[in-house]
Amino acid sequence: MSEKQPIYAPSLKAERARTTGLESSSKRRMSRGRRVWYSIVVALAKLIARFMWLTCRIEKVIGQEHLDELLAAGRPAIVCYWHQMHLFCAKLMLAQIPRGMNVGFLISPSVSGEVPTAIAKSWGANVLRGSPTRTGGQALRDMYQAVRKEGISPVITVDGPKGPANEFKVGAVLLARLTKAPMLPMAYAASKAKYWDSWDSFILPRPFSRIVIAIGAPVSVPPDTLLEELEPIRLSMEQQLKALTDLAQSSLQGSSGA
Fold first, then answer.
1. What's the pLDDT at 5?
2. Would the CA dihedral through 194, 195, 196, 197 be positive or negative?
3. Which residues does residue 138 pair with via DSSP β-bridges, in sequence order?
4. How many CA atoms lie within 13 A of 122 on its CB side?
5. Which CATH architecture has domain 12-17+25-256?
6. C-alpha–C-alpha distance, residues 108 and 127, integer Å
7. How far apart are the C-alpha atoms of 247 and 188, rounded to whole Å?
8. 247, CA 20 to 30 Å: which among 37, 149, 171, 190?
9. Domain segments of the chain as ranges
10. Dihedral sign of CA atoms 139, 20, 130, 15 in order
């Protein structure tokens, strides 16, 4: 009897990045034509991101000292922000790689995850292939190993991958409890932006916008925290992200009126 074939054959880049070794839930195959198309999409996505990063100006990073303290101590952190804020929060985290932070991103193991995987790897970040919805338990174990054994700081869009928007999911809190690594909340605001027609209202700053990023104090979860005590922490983190968003927005408004 022949061996059962996988649902799709992942590209070499995905194979190296997929620590779970799980098959994709998608029935799409990574054909030669799809690989060519994805390589074009990767190039375009990187070009657009670079254009936004070059034309927009990060005016201020509120709470930069929290990030600096973690870097100085050589401690990994669980970076938390909303999915809609990926563009400039991810830029900030990628900028920490040359400073010595071992940054990693959790990306879907499906074929659709090939593009963000290739982008993240090309910019020097680590990649963990997993989904909080279909491979959540395995993804959590992989992130635990990455944090504890490799010192990776995983970046988690805490309302992803499909929402509800601005609802902090408990996975990051549980990971903080297991690894003893603190959660580091952050948010950003743009002076002028388009909000994409998507579940998360993805923020796409207009060219030459001013950007303010706000970083909160690290939040640790003691390893002896009871499971029923995680919910208040989750709610507190959700409120913190909303407060950081308001802080970034108010800072922009204050500087424009100065």
1. 32
2. negative
3. none
4. 12
5. 3-Layer(aba) Sandwich (3.40)
6. 10
7. 9
8. 171
9. 12-17+25-256
10. positive
Q: Are 165 and 59 in contact (CB under 8 A)?
A: no
Query: pLDDT (tens digit, 9 = 90+) per residue, 218-255?
Result: 999 999 999 999 999 999 999 999 999 999 999 999 87
pTM of the shown model: 0.84
What are 93-106's pLDDT values in tens digits?
999 999 999 999 98
Give the span between the Cα atoms of 84 and 202, in whole angstroms: 4
Is 136 in contact with 128 (CB distance < 8 Å)? Answer: no
Contact 19, 128 (CB under 8 A): yes
Residue 132 confidence (pLDDT) above 50: yes
Report pLDDT digits (tens) over 17-60. 443 344 444 455 667 777 888 899 999 999 999 999 999 999 99
